[in-house]
Design a protein that fits this description.
alpha/beta
């Protein structure tokens, strides 16, 4: 794959119970900015979403958000980013984020993050895109998910080639290098 110009980041609307999650999100946003990679994300100012966006902005990066009207109406939109798309639904949000991005990275998050990761992974598995998908395993956060996916593979519900579509790494710089 050619150089990445825009990466979609999926992450939590909460910061979690360990400050390491926010630190990793802030540093990942800054890393994208330093590499000249635009951050595409869910458009919020709360949780790790806000932290990753602020990290990119503080480092001089470009940030493009996509938020459903219902979330904007609840005043969850980040007003300090360069571009904010307001869409009708979560489905529209995920589709536009995918269209705007060259790759995808999941940071720690909850069911919304899982939904986004699973959908983009499913789209890749069925051939709707060939873009790389990374998982930044901050403090072992994604290890239970990886164990579940390996269990699905062992029981014949997931083929290893599908699992191999996900690039897991606990180092942000190394993860980016592996996505190219």
């Amino acid at each position: 794959m050619a150089e990445l110009s825009a990466i979609c980041v999926y992450c939590g609307a909460a910061t979690g119970d360990d400050p390491v999650f926010a630190t990793a999100a802030r540093e990942f946003g800054a890393l994208l900015a330093h590499r000249g990679i635009k951050l595409v994300y869910g458009g919020g100012h709360v949780g790790l979403m806000g932290v990753v966006a602020d990290g990119a902005l503080l480092a001089g990066g470009e940030v493009e958000g996509v938020i459903p009207q219902s979330m904007k109406a609840k005043e969850l939109a980040h007003t300090g980013i360069q571009k904010l798309h307001v869409v009708e639904s979560m489905h529209d949000r995920k589709a536009l984020m995918a269209e705007l991005s060259d790759a995808f990275v999941a940071l720690p998050g909850g069911i919304g993050t899982l939904d986004e990761l699973f959908e983009i992974w499913t789209w890749r598995q069925i051939g709707l895109h060939e873009k790389p998908i990374g998982v930044l395993d901050v403090a072992g956060y994604w290890q239970p998910f990886l164990k579940l996916a390996e269990n699905m593979d062992q029981h014949g519900f997931l083929h290893r080639n599908a699992l191999d579509m996900l690039v897991f790494d606990d180092n942000a710089e190394r993860l980016l290098e592996r996505l190219v």
